[in-house]
């Protein structure tokens, strides 16, 4: 497979008394696995993530804990199925889909790319708002500067490794700052634990939105496609692949729980959020002007990693369609970022498009996960690998539940979307 690192060939010598000439490759493999987990996690932690979690927590209060718990379970099931099939087959999502049914990969790729482009316009805008909150920079200029930063990553020869490091650092910064703010607001943790088990409101719309935003659309494949580019494929790497999938969801979960507790700590004191910018108001109400600056850092880190993740994963869905795209895929990624930034800078953020695509994102998950479940039992795709029955059954459950809930919420919110 083209443009694959040598990381899939690494192994430890097992001799602690002699230098390990492959030690650097072992570290590279571990870095790529961690990078894939953080790429998936940070791709889902964007401007929409911050706003959605804040708004739903403000509505559901402590019962938001139940929503988060359910969504994390569904997320883990979805990602384990997708990562294992992609990892074992060594094929990207569109190629798996085409082997399941000729032409299906093209349909999936079109949905992913259109959704990824629409979301990336919002991600670029979020980066601009982050720099505005952090440094007072005009949002348009902030978006352009941020896009330039993202483009630089893909100018490097080993862009994948640079991307791994960027999302890793940004991810840790976001988690540290979010945990700090959560502790500062002194949330009612006891009540949150109780309502996580016994909610007053099931929050079905919130569950659909959170699952769609965490493992829907392009995000479903972000980590798995990174593993392919790093050469970490095959049954011999199955344990690491599964651990990477779970790690990505846990990283997302930590961030979401910390934000949930921070918001709960603020609203439980009777303070009113500014719904024109709810996430920012949480930080301001928690620790004043410094909180607004911290929000800027988190917003920028969340947005820039989502810009990178959306561009990288969206283009990965068309790489195998033509040799030119495969050879110059980094330039196609840069072009993707440039188009997203141009639309934001000249037209502005197309709110209605973003809302519609955001809602439809949850519908892509049943389709993509359903394809992976069929592929998991086709020997022509996964060879001798035996997919665990528990993952097939629970994966099918997620497909059915998300399809029903997505259609239900779309119908009930149709007037607000269109």
From TrEMBL:
Entry membrane topology: Multi-pass membrane protein
Biased composition (Basic and acidic residues): 1-12
Membrane spanning stretches: 32-50, 56-78, 99-119, 139-156, 168-190, 202-224, 245-267, 294-318, 330-347, 353-376, 388-411
Highest taxon of the lineage: Bacteria
A GO CC annotation given for this chain: plasma membrane
PANTHER family reported in the protein's UniProt record: SOLUTE CARRIER PROTEIN FAMILY 11 MEMBER, TRANSPORTER PROTEIN
Record's protein name: Mn2+/Fe2+ NRAMP family transporter
Organism expressing this protein natively: Ureibacillus acetophenoni
């Amino acid at each position: 497979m083209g443009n694959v690192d040598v990381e899939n060939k690494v192994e430890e010598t097992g001799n602690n008394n002699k230098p390990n000439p492959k030690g650097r490759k072992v570290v590279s493999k571990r870095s790529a696995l961690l990078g894939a987990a953080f790429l998936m996690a940070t791709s889902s932690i964007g401007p929409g993530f911050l706003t959605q979690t804040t708004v739903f927590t403000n509505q559901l209060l402590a019962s938001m804990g139940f929503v988060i718990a359910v969504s994390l379970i569904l997320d883990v099931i979805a990602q384990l199925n997708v990562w294992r099939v992609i990892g074992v087959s060594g094929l990207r999502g569109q190629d798996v889909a085409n082997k399941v049914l000729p032409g299906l990969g093209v349909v999936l790729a079109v949905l992913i790319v259109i959704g990824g482009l629409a979301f990336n316009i919002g991600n670029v805008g979020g980066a601009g708002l982050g720099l505005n909150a952090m440094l007072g920079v005009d949002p348009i200029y902030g978006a352009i500067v941020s896009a330039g930063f993202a483009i630089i990553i893909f100018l490097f020869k080993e862009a994948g490794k640079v991307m791994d490091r960027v999302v890793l650092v940004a991810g840790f910064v976001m988690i540290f700052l979010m945990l700090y703010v959560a502790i500062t607001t002194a949330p009612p943790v006891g009540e949150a634990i109780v309502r996580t088990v016994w909610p007053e409101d099931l929050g079905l719309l919130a569950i659909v939105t959170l699952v769609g935003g965490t493992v829907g659309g392009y995000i479903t494949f972000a980590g798995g496609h990174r593993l392919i580019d790093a050469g970490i494929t095959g049954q011999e790497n199955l344990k690491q692949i599964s651990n990477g999938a779970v790690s990505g969801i846990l990283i997302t979960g930590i961030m979401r729980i910390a934000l949930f507790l921070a918001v709960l700590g603020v609203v439980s004191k009777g303070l009113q959020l500014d719904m024109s910018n709810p996430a920012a108001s949480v930080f301001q109400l928690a620790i004043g002007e410094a909180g607004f600056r911290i929000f800027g850092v988190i917003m920028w880190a969340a947005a820039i990693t989502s810009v990178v993740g959306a561009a990288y994963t969206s283009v990965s869905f068309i790489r195998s369609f033509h040799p030119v795209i495969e050879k110059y895929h980094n330039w196609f990624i840069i072009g993707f970022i440039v188009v997203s930034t141009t639309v934001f800078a000249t037209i502005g953020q197309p709110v209605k498009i973003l809302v519609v695509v955001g809602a439809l994102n949850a519908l892509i998950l049943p389709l993509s996960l359903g394809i992976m479940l069929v592929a998991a039992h086709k020997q022509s795709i996964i060879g001798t690998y035996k997919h665990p029955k528990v993952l097939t059954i629970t994966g099918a459950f997620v497909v059915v539940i998300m399809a029903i809930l997505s259609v239900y919420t779309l119908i009930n919110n149709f007037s607000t979307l269109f």
